[in-house]
Automatic annotation (TrEMBL):
GO terms for molecular function: isomerase activity. Transmembrane segments: none annotated. Residues 1-18 form the signal peptide. It comes from the Bacteria. It comes from Pedobacter zeae. Keywords: Isomerase, Signal. This is Thiol-disulfide isomerase/thioredoxin.
Amino acid sequence: MKILLSITLIVLAMNVSAQEVNKKIHDQVHNKDILINACTREGITTFPEFKEMYDPLYAAYIPDAATMIELKKLVKNEKIKIVLGTWCGDSKANVPNFFKILDALHFKEKNVEIIAVDGNKKAENGILDGLDVLRVPTFIVLDKKGKELGRIIEGPKTSLEGDLLAIYKKKS
């Protein structure tokens, strides 16, 4: 009986502390509904305002083949944090292409964390603490221990796959 009670209390505690994923709020800055905090890929790609650009851009994007061959050799067990705004034009334009690259690399979805921010580039519950995000989207590449290797902010300098390759080359 004590064990069952303990397990029940642990499960309740976990549920209370768990954040709502794909949380929708009304953003005062942009006067529209947005996603906030931790999101899933499915959550952002089915969010109506984000989806309208996501589907055609994802389908149309063709990453540079030579760059992708080099990237495939370097990608191991890194993690990537994507901080985006579902209201943001740069996020709508770059996130689909970034996912197309990750899919082509067979990057493990469990190693991708998506955080949506409001119009002030804030999220709740401290999930952005220490990330120093000023513009979105921000793609942060981390090693398996969580140390930042590099980031792509707002848009790429060369191409998304080219900038990603530069981050990976710096690591090795």
